[in-house]
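Input.
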Amino acid sequence: MATLSAQRRASLAARLRQGRPRNSGAGTAGPVPLNDGPATRRLVVLHAVGGTVFPYGHLAHAVADRFAVWGVPAPAEPPETLEQLVTQHLETLRRFWPGGPYRLAGWSMGGILAFELARRLQADGAEVELLGLLDTPIWLPGDLHPTPVQYAGWFVADAARALRADVDRPPGLYRAGVEEQLDWLARAMDPTGEPEQLREELAARCALFCANTRLIAGYRPTAQVRARALVVDVEESPNGSSRWPDVIDGPTRTRWLPGNHYSFLQPPEVSRLAAELLELDEEGQR
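Output.
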């Protein structure tokens, strides 16, 4: 089994905590700065099902000359509906950046949140200048009823690939008990240390992953959004993002990028994604 360096484990622990702070009165975490880009051009990225915004780190670095990238993590305690979650994030945007114009992007579930936020902002008269939907599913099944063990298996597989942990596939994934699967992931990430604290973080992260997965079950967009948009499909991903242009009213750039659902946000593939995003923004400035 491949293992992680001490520095990588420390970084991992910090990332796992990101997006799961103590709840504030507003019910959601504050935005997280992901680079030192120009303050006059802000790009806001929304969390995926795992709740953190660290998967956008490489992208934020690649576009730092053009955008100040801010990530909006998940609230510590997810609400009961997707609409309520969008409302919480909308309040965050208004609180930190009340004036707009807004540039929003999201990977996977984050794209759903970006689209729904754009819809709500426009309904209130705000300008959405740019929208990025990064390997975002458009129609999700609503009739799945996974067991806790299956949810844990999804989380472990997602965490290992999103974190690029380079660990062997756990034996009995989706069949072993929840505790066993989380213990395996904790040992894989910190095989020589004391994994109790990491194990606690993983349990909280798994609960958040499951809650967010339930929120988007059966999702269908119900209205159009007016924006200059980038819709990204990834060659090795099953998500099928190509129907998003049907609900976008505005210049839309649809691109197929190499890699899988995780690797296209990591070097070297992320450079292609960054280039597409920058070119779309340049078109809007002409």
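The first helix runs from residue 6 to 17.
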